[in-house]
Amino acid sequence: EIENLENLIKNITDKEKEFWKNKIRKKLNISGNKTIYCYSGSYKAWQGLPEIINFFKEKYNQDKNIFLLILSSDKKIIQKMLFESTLPDNSYLVLNIRPENLYKYLSACNVGLLFREEDIINWVSRPTKMLEYQAAGLEIMHNNTIDLLANQNKTSIVHRIQ
């Protein structure tokens, strides 16, 4: 699976990314000038979803021209969390999409979110989501808990969780 993702990283052209960015944003009715933050994955404890939602809420309170797109099969529980966060309904969207369409939706985004708990398992991991975000050319916002991201200079921004 990882080898296939590495091939995908090499094979998605800038032209394809731009095509899907425009098409998906139009389909979802998200303005082209909005910065879209994305989380792709499940609702599991180690995925740090509460931290991701809190992070986005802080960002949104500073800048209303951002949007959170969550791609997950755990749609109901995540929608409940977002509702309870008091974020406005028009600041986020949760979709359950087919795996073969993932790169299309990621291409519409600007920033991929990857927050994990600080432990040795996460530090040495090579998350599939990291490769998917990179395949779509996203900046990756993370909390410095994954060695591959922490020691990578390009497309990686550290957010320290307080």
Describe the protein in words.
The chain has 162 residues and is α/β, with parallel strands linked by helices. It contains 8 helices and 6 strands. It has a 6-stranded parallel β-sheet with strand order 3-2-1-4-5-6, sandwiched between helices. Helix 8 (147-150) links the parallel strand 5 (139-142) and strand 6 (156-158). Helix 1 (2-11) runs parallel beside helix 7 (128-135). The longest helix is centred in the N-terminal third of the chain and has 15 residues, at 14-28. The protein is globular and about 40 Å long. The model is unreliable at 156-162 (pLDDT under 50).
Percent of residues in helices comes to 40-55%
The pLDDT mean sits at: 80
Strand order of the largest sheet: 3-2-1-4-5-6
List the helices and strands in order.
HHEHEHEHEHHEHE
The main sheet comes to: 6 strands, parallel
End-to-end Cα distance: 34 Å
Given the structure, what is the number of helices?
8
β-strand amount: 15-25%
Specify the overall morphology: globular
| Assembly context of the chains | single chain
Could you name the ranges where pLDDT drops below 50 across 5 or more consecutive residues?
A: 156-162
Let me know the number of strands.
Answer: 6
SS-based structural class? alpha/beta
Radius of gyration: 15 Å
